[in-house]
Structure formats: structure tokens, C-alpha cells
Specification:
Layout: E1 3-14, E2 17-28, E3 32-36, H1 43-50, E4 58-63, E5 66-67, E6 77-80, H2 95-100, H3 104-107, H4 115-127, H5 143-155, E7 161-165, H6 173-190, E8 193-197, H7 201-204, E9 210-215, E10 217-223, H8 224-228, H9 232-239, E11 246-249, E12 252-255
Parallel strand pairs: 3-8, 3-9, 6-7, 7-8
Antiparallel strand pairs: 1-2, 1-4, 4-5, 9-10, 11-12
Helix pairs in contact: 4-5
Length: 257
Amino acid sequence: MQSIIEIKKLFYRYEKDAVLEDINLTIPDGSFLAIVGPNGSGKSTLLKLILGLLKPQKGDIFLFGQEINKFRDWQKVGYVSQKANSFNTGFPATVFEVVASGLTKKLGMFTFFKKEHAQKVFEALEAVDMKMFSNRNIGELSGGQQQRVFIARALVSEPNLLILDEPTVGVDAENVNSFYRMLGDLNKSRGITLLLVTHDIGTISDKVSHVACLNKHLHFHGETEEFEQLRMEGMSEVYGHDVHMLAHHHEHGGVVK
């Protein structure tokens, strides 16, 4: 199976503080990986390195088989940030217009918007169950609905890899489970490789295919079944304190032992 991301012996530090140490990670095509870890564990730094916003100080990162410093085909990569807390709800744009703006990189700034482009927008909105809101102003939506729209914006250019940084910030607790279920459906139906940074350890455990536990070092990386079998002491070592993990199988909670 082809690797979408391959990281080898990666190190990164801010001045004297080591943030990432000897990270080795392979993300296969079609997988759904959740990266979990405490605050300050290096998750955001790792995303910035994968997105090319930071350069590795030591080690290598490969995207789609290419060294990241030579990689240019960024339309293959979609990214959704922690937008819910900072988004300007007064922004005068409809849901359709926000999603359509995701085609700019692929089509160019001055390309005439055609019928087939509108169809792509509607398909992306349908994928996140937001098509019925296409004419609504983005500022009128809830935090969870806005986040779905921004995922549609990332999907409209048909990326092979979708990276999400804490996507449930601003999503109310009742809708978090359905939000992750929607991501799982995207992974399976579209075959998009998903890389997700999250604090929702238990909620995602039956939605993702792989889990990576990061705290400067990569303490665990494997399939979800292996992750669920970890003993509480093992997770406590990663997080530095006791962790209570719940796996919500079929909408029912079960303690992972």
C-alpha cells in the first residue's frame, strides 16, 4: 500500500526546548489517523511541518513519495484549522460562496465559474450534509455547521489527503459524535486519507483506523484495536496523569482497559 506521508527520524526544537524527538511515522493511503496527546506535546508543530509551514531541523518528511522541500502539488492536500473560535460571524458570504472559494487554487483567481464548478460545490456540501444551507449566510450557522462548511471548502478541490486540527472546537457536545461519524463516512466513501489532531480520545476510537500517541516522542502508533487494548498505565505515561478513555461503540460507551 502506498504511503501518503512518511516521516523519518524527525527532530524539532524551539530555541532550547525540544518539541519533537526522533519521530518515525508512516501514514498509508486510505487510512484515518488520529494524533492524540497532551497540550504542548508537539501535535501542532508536527502538522506545521507536514504542511510545509516549518522546515525539519533534522530528519525527513515525504508527501506522496516526494521530499517535502520538493513537493509542489499542494492541491492534493486539504487543511481545516481550529477556526470556530476565531471566525468572524459577520463575514458577508453565503455557504455556497465560502465553499466555492476553495476552488481558487485549482482554477486560478480569474477563471470563469462554470456549471460544472457549481456542481462540485454542491457535491462537497452534500458530502458533509450541508447542501440545504447553501444560500444561508455563513455567520448564521452554528459552530459545528460552520466547521462542516469549511471541510466542504477543503473537499471541493478533491484532495487526496485531508488534515484537520482539533476540528470539534466550537462544536457542541451533542453533535461531536455525528461530526466524527461524518468524517468516517468521508474516509470510507471517498477513500480520502484523513489526518486528525484531537483531544477527543474516546469519541474517535471507533471512527478511525489508526491512532498515534504523541508527547515529544511517538509513544504509540498502530491500529485502533491495539490502541483500545492499551492499559491505563500506558496512556498515563504518555499524558503524565491518569486518563479515562471511553470508546463509544454503536453510540454506547465502553471503558477501554
